[in-house]
Amino acid sequence: MFDMTDVKATVRVVVTSLAALAFWMAGAGIATAHTALSGSDPAEGASLAASPTAITLSFSEDINPTFVNVVLSSADGRSWISGDPRVDGPRVVTEVRPDLPTSGVYTVGYRVVSADGHPVSGSYTFTISGVPGEAPPASVSASPTPSITAAPSAEAPADPGTELKTIALAVAGATFVGVVAFWVLSKRRRHTRASRTAGPSQPGG
């Protein structure tokens, strides 16, 4: 038969251990949060007096230079990117064509993969000369530029890391709680058996 004192003590230890484990896993979840865009130049919604020479995107983690795609398009769908993006840790810099019209609304689109495998994509707009919605003059560019939906050079890898981390944390947590509960219960049992074996002291005859 189990001593109720042993059972109550074990329950208290298990509850305390679970609370500590939950706190630890919450912290681990924050530490493994996905990469996000932390800043850009031009900024989202900015109104510029002149055309930018480059698009700079800053992310919260380092970026894998193999999987980077940045586009700059005008209202008529033309692309105004010049060359391939340059990656420097968490920063991605993409040159802009020098013949970019100095008026209109432009859209920056990006798709990147962080160094630890998390894909990040998004888009935003900015305006040049504060003229919202004005399309660039047709005479600026003699011929349309290639489509901004050019085929990517490689497919971004799937990211099994987050699922594996979750499973590993769950297994480690369950093992930890089980070991603590077993240790406490075993210690209590040994103490109870020792007390019963010793028995009450006999008065002297």
TrEMBL record:
Keyword entries, A-Z: Copper, Membrane, Metal-binding, Signal, Transmembrane, Transmembrane helix
Main location: other
GO cellular component: cell envelope; periplasmic space; plasma membrane
Superkingdom as given in the UniProt entry: Bacteria
Positions of region (Disordered): 134-159
Signal sequence range: 1-33
UniProt xrefs under InterPro entries: CopC/D, CopC_dom, Cu-Rt/internalin_Ig-like, Ig_E-set
Gene3D superfamilies (alphabetical): 2.60.40.1220
Span of domain CopC: 34-128
Transmembrane segments: 167-186
Record Pfam families: CopC
Keyword field contains Transmembrane: yes
Molecular function GO labels: copper ion binding
BP term (GO), one: response to copper ion
Subcellular location: Cell envelope
Official protein name in the record: Putative copper resistance protein, CopC family
Species of origin: Mycolicibacterium sediminis
